Amino acid sequence: EPEVTQTPSHQVTQMGQEVILRCVPISNHLYFYWYRQILGQKVEFLVSFYNNEISEKSEIFDDQFSVERPDGSNFTLKIRSTKLEDSAMYFCASSRDLDYGYTFGSGTRLTVV
Amino acid sequence: GNSVTQMEGPVTLSEEAFLTINCTYTATGYPSLFWYVQYPGEGLQLLLKATKADDKGSNKGFEATYRKETTSFHLEKGSVQVSDSAVYFCALTGANSKLTFGKGITLSVRP
């Protein structure tokens, strides 16, 4: 069964450093997403991406965050200057269409120290 | 805006017990409804879905029926197993494609 692949599975970074989280969505999917889950809390929407542009973003997704689909297969989330409160599990997801449901990756656990 | 409310947890059951996890929603228009499951140390997996009123989603012995009149999508299973221990999230998508999640509920099944 097709999978969404995320790398790395765990990243530790110092506060103020830039991090890039990588995702390879399912190849025939058109919609791409990033979500995050702070330990023990709700899964929160960050951003959706369609047709090579951001279609929606949440209040969390401020100027420190950016997304890119640099080569038609990878889908990256960059945090420019990490803060302690960015520590969370970050999930990438892709979807074929709006009613189909998402396929999530297994997540990247980001720890900011 | 859209929102999903799940019953408070955690839930602890004995093996072969009947499971109900309540979920209600608020949304404009006609949302699609989902249950996702997160096993320990893993990501989110789609468990089942329903895209219109009175649809029943089912998978792995779990079922949920889209009830527009009560804006509910309760998850049920007739006989739980230890391997069902996980966190369960109710979610919806509305007119846009954004998934809105409930808080999730932890299910622990004792042998």
Biggest beta sheet attributes of chain B: 6 strands, mixed
User: What structural class do helix, strand and pairing data of chain B support?
Assistant: mainly beta
Euclidean distance between termini CA atoms of chain A: 36 Å
Q: Total number of helical segments of chain B?
A: 0
Please mark out the parts of chain B with pLDDT under 50 across 5 or more consecutive residues, or reply none. Answer: none
Unreliably modeled segments of chain A: none
Span between N and C termini of chain B?
41 Å
The rough form of chain A would be described as globular
pLDDT average of chain B, as an integer? 93
Oligomer: heterodimer
Description:
The complex is a heterodimer of chains A (113) and B (111). Chain A contains no helices and eleven strands. Chain A has 113 residues and is mainly beta. In chain A, strands 2, 4, 5, 6, 9, 10 and 11 form a seven-stranded mixed β-sheet that branches. Chain A has a four-stranded antiparallel β-sheet with strand order 1-3-8-7, with no helix packed on it. The mean pLDDT of chain A is 92. Chain B has 111 residues and is mainly β. Chain B has strands spanning 3-6, 11-14, 19-21, 23-26, 32-38, 44-50, 56-59, 62-65, 75-77, 86-93, 99-101, 105-110. In chain B, strands 2, 5, 6, 10, 11 and 12 form a six-stranded mixed β-sheet that branches. The radius of gyration of chain B is 13 Å and the shape is globular. Chain B starts with a strand and ends with a strand. The interface between A and B is medium-sized, with 24 and 21 residues.
Structure summary:
Chain A has 113 residues and is an all-beta fold.
Topology (elements, then pairings):
The complex is a heterodimer of chains A (113) and B (111).
Chain A lengths: L4 E3 L2 E4 L5 E6 L6 E7 L5 E8 L2 E5 L7 E4 L6 E5 L8 E8 L7 E2 L3 E5 L1
Parallel strand pairs in A: 2-11
Antiparallel strand pairs in A: 1-3, 3-8, 4-5, 4-9, 5-6, 7-8, 9-10, 9-11
Chain B lengths: L2 E4 L4 E4 L4 E3 L1 E4 L5 E7 L5 E7 L5 E4 L2 E4 L9 E3 L8 E8 L5 E3 L3 E6 L1
